[in-house]
């Protein structure tokens, strides 16, 4: 029975703390029921959350409001309480600079004493603020007749504290946090979610912009082959003669790259081609130059009529330069073949084309074979063997 009476306050205190949201670790640390090495050797025996709940505050720190705490007591009043604090603090500061007692410091480090001085400095501020509010209730207490509670500095400080304590109101943010903690948590979580979504969206947009920029750079440098699908306006292919803007043919494409700014404005009636048609064979390349394909006019006609103004974009210029190599080779081969045919016709007209004529395409046959050994007249093949030398063979055995 005596054991139950002795443990009854501990039981009630632990249950009360648990009811108000104290964690089991805090309760165990407060009742010395946690015998782990961490709690016994390294942590303090002052569970702060448990102490706040037992004192009547909530479990979360900082959700209370004291109007008197907004007034800092004058330093003249502070140093009259426990004046030895100002005497010992310089020694601890000198000890931090590794100075001994003779030099104004300490011979050994003392963390506990340093913490005690900081605690006493904080407690004397709290004591002055509390006594300024309690003095009207307990005027008969004898220590109010001594300094620092009977000077002009004290009277001024006490009047300011009491005036704010009478009509003090809790800030709205604290009221919302205390009255609607769930609303405060929802707002905070919503804010975090919005920030995370904004960051993900910004990262995604940045990646897409980088991809678009890389594609445009590759397109301008001629590293990407772009195929445009679409149709031209019905009617004649393209009118090469200058015409008013209302009757000028236009090339309608479903997709077109953003060309660089043209150095000269387009002339009315001039066709502007954004890209050449896709070709797969040399015949298609030659047809594109000579006649035009995919509804586009002949490249030869465009070049002769408009020069380079019909291809103002960088992409079309790169395509034109690449295909111009093939067009030049085809034109050169065609001119060589035409010259050969013309020379053969001239020989026939002069009577020099008798007999069989060997034609090697690509290498024109010269009119004059030039100096060199010729077969002797009338010898035929024998003259050729005489020129090259007869092959010697061994006599045949009988």
TrEMBL record:
This is High-osmolarity-induced transcription protein 1. PANTHER family: HIGH-OSMOLARITY-INDUCED TRANSCRIPTION PROTEIN 1, PROTEIN MSN1. Residues 278-332 form the Transcription activator GCR1-like domain. Residues 345-398 are annotated as: Disordered. It holds the Pfam family GCR1_C. GO terms for molecular function: DNA-binding transcription factor activity, RNA polymerase II-specific; RNA polymerase II cis-regulatory region sequence-specific DNA binding. InterPro entries: HOT1, Ndc10_dom2_sf, NDC10_II, TF_GCR1-like. Residues 4-152 form the Ndc10 domain. GO terms for biological process: positive regulation of ribosomal protein gene transcription by RNA polymerase II. Signal peptide: none annotated. It comes from the Eukaryota. Residues 379-398 have a biased composition (Basic residues). Residues 355-365 have a biased composition (Low complexity). It comes from Fusarium oxysporum f. sp. lycopersici (strain 4287 / CBS 123668 / FGSC 9935 / NRRL 34936) (Fusarium vascular wilt of tomato).
